[in-house]
Amino acid sequence: MTILLAVRLPLLVLVLMLSGCLGNSPVVPIYNKSIGAQTEPGFHIVGRGETLYSIAWRYGINYRRLAAANAIDNNYRIYPGQKLRIKGIDGSLGNQRERPKKVVKKTSGQRVNVAVAEPKKTSKKSKPMSPVSYESWLWPIKEKPSKAFAAASSSHKGIDIRAQLGDSVLAAKSGKVVYAGGGLRGYGNLIIVKHDETYLSAYGYNRRLLIKEGDTVRRGQKIAEAGASAGGEVRLHFEIRRNGKPLNPLSMLPK
Question: With bands split at pLDDT 50, 70 and 90, how would you rate the model's confidence at 211?
Answer without folding.
Answer: very high
